[in-house]
Amino acid sequence: MVEPPDSNLMALSSVSVRDIMSPGVIAIPSDTTVRACAQTMFERRTHAVLVIDQGSRAPAGWVTHEDVLRYLRSDPMTTLAGSVVSQQPAYIDADASVDEAAAQMVRDSTNHLLVGSPEVIPEGVLSSWDLVAHYAQPSGRGGGGETG
Questions:
Q1: Domain extent listing, the chain
Q2: Rounded distance, CA 117 to CA 99, Å?
Q3: How far apart are CA 96 and CA 57, in angstroms?
Q4: CATH number of 17-136
Q5: What is the mean pLDDT of the chain?
Q6: Would you place residue 65 in the very low, low, confident or very high pLDDT band (cuts 50, 70, 90)?
Q7: d(CA 120, CA 79)
Q8: What order do you get walking across the sheet with 112-115 strand by strand?
Q9: pTM, whole model, 2 decimals?
Q10: How far is CA 6 from CA 20, 99, 116, 131, in A?
Q11: Geometric angle at alpha carbon 113, from 78 and 124, rounded to 5°
């Protein structure tokens, strides 16, 4: 028999995004190869990197581990990160609640939110893994775990 989830796991939270986000953002230029993306993800132990457009220097979006898997078998040495971005950048205020962040991720079908606004360098990133870790804690509190 499947037990219902512990009511503490999904309780509404007053915890802010800032409390559980990962500070900083792992970013790469858009002319980075898919192979180099894989190396960066491995070295930094993350499942996504933010791609920065070379021309505008603005975030172009996320390349995830799934994107890397799609292209590693074709031509990872010449396929560029800028051409395989699968998730557009989305932002959330650091003072927003984790519940607001979870709702935004579901609504926007994204796994990462840049913490801050498009006008400034993000202070960090909130991943779906950070939210899962937060909600999985008996007290409903987790720590920023993933860096990207």
A1: 17-136
A2: 19
A3: 26
A4: 3.10.580.10
A5: 87
A6: very high
A7: 29
A8: 22-23, 124-127, 112-115, 91-92
A9: 0.82
A10: 21, 17, 32, 16
A11: 90
